[in-house]
Amino acid sequence: QIYETADEAVKAVAREIVDLVQTKAASSEKCVLGLATGVSPIKLYQELVRMHREEGVSFRNVVTFNLDEYLPMPKESEQSYHYFMHHHLFDHIDIDPKNIHIPDGTLEGDEIDKFCRDYEKAIEAAGGIDLQILGIGRTGHIGFNEPGSFITSQTRKVFLNDLTIKDAIKDFGSRNLVPTKAITMGVGTIMQARRVILMAWGEKKAPIIKATVEGRVSDSVPATFLQMHSNVQFVIDESAASEL
Ligand code: GLP
Questions:
Q1: Catalytic site positions
Q2: 210-241 b/e (C-beta count within 10 Å ≥ 16 → b)
Q3: Residue 219: which domain range?
Q4: Residue 242: inside a domain, yes or no?
Q5: Closest ligand 1 atom to 200 CA
Q6: Domain total for the chain?
Q7: 161 lines ligand 1 (CB under 6 A)
Q8: Is 64 in the pocket of ligand 1 (CB under 6 A)?
Q9: Which of 46, 78, 96, 234 is deepest in the core (most CB within 10 A)?
Q10: pLDDT tens for residues 126-145?
Q11: Does 38 contact ligand 1 (Cβ within 6 A)?
Q12: Each residue of 7-29: pLDDT tens digit?
């Protein structure tokens, strides 16, 4: 779905999320959302906050699982995805804090593997992800599943690609301050979501959107695995679509 502007696009995505949340609420069910960070979803979160404030939309029945977190990363750091999610969304809506799940960047050694296994179990116990929101990195990563990630990969510790580290310098100030590792949901975790919406804005994303939508399915561009998902939508603006 190509929109003229990102503003228009996020309105449609926010509407779909809220419809799903309210349909589930009407039958006293929880709505399980997979959430993303980065610049791309910021406007979406602003629209959800607006709908909560101005239209009284409630998120009490929502359970969230975030895709990823840098490693090492203290929760209170302004660069953490933990801070990002609270700052842009969770602090401004009525979600129950115990329904929020974000990978923990403070763990070390064997604790990490255990955490990752438990994260998968928690997603399963919640009934699986109803709707997964994604951005895309210029390496073709979804979450932090860099080139070489398998289609069956699960939540795990990963090493960041050079281009990803370069793109993160804007948030950290200098290259040596960017963490080189992360915890991310796997491609397999994402593929199990019942619906996936990937959002991308701007010309910088045009080459990777073309490779992802029109290219051969391969682990050298992990986002191409989404071509094999039965219920996926790319919601992009005209500039991100300019090479299609
Ligand atoms: C980070 C995140 C990804 C995100 C990507 C793109 O690497 N881990 O989940 O999709 O950035 O970010 P942006 O939306 O800022 O371009």
A1: 68, 141, 146
A2: ebbbeeeeebebbbbbbeebeebbbbbbbbbb
A3: 2-237
A4: no
A5: 14
A6: 1
A7: no
A8: no
A9: 234
A10: 999 999 999 999 999 999 99
A11: yes
A12: 999 999 999 999 999 999 999 99
